[in-house]
Specification:
Structural class: alpha/beta
Bound molecules: flavin mononucleotide
Strand content: 15-25%
Mean pLDDT: 97
Number of helices: 8
Number of domains: 1
Number of strands: 8
Helix content: 40-55%
Radius of gyration: 17 Å
Length: 203
Amino acid sequence: MTNILVVSGASRPESNVHAAVAAATRFVQGAGATVRQCDLASVRLPIMEWGSDDQSTHPSVLGVRADARWADGFVLVTPEYHGNMSGTLKNWFDYLYLELAGKFAGVISVTGGGGGDMSIIAVKNCFAWCHGFTLPFHAAVRPGDITDGEITAPKVVDRIARIAHDVARYAPVLRAAFDAARAMGRGPEAGVAGMHVGDWENA
Ligand SMILES: Cc1cc2nc3c(=O)[nH]c(=O)nc-3n(C[C@H](O)[C@H](O)[C@H](O)COP(=O)(O)O)c2cc1C
């Protein structure tokens, strides 16, 4: 079974992001994967403090790390804030690295009317810096695409469905390839996976 984590980068309970998270979750389930949601508006992670002993045993930190480690792939949904991802989502990224390496993600931005490109690029960039791979297309949701808390614009629904199916399709393929490469050891023939040999043993 393929495990997909749908992450909400919303900073508030009433966020339009929840409509995109609901749609993505529905389509990932429809694609046959097992889904968990990580709703950062309710998890309320503390701001990451590198090296903090308190944070390394904080229940919310342990929870998000465990969920990310469980996942083969991700659908990352961010509100667009000042042409970027939300601080909430960036803070989630800052707790993670090994949990994302060699995995696959699709990205959705929820905006106040903009095209979402800047926040989408920001999320993809951050995922790449964690040695993850992203889908070469994405979706943006504007306020007019949502009716009564549900995404109703056909083109946006279509894009989210494609993202969900592609994440469910490619995440296990990439994970298997990455794990096989990692098993080759640290040499250059193992590519980026060779940089992650012993990750969990040393964590
Ligand atoms: C601090 C802040 C910055 C924002 N910056 C942008 C922006 O750069 N582009 C845009 O289209 N909308 C922007 N918005 C509007 C949000 O993208 C919009 O509210 C969207 O629905 C996602 O956030 P939500 O959680 O408020 O629903 C911004 C909102 C806030 C609160």
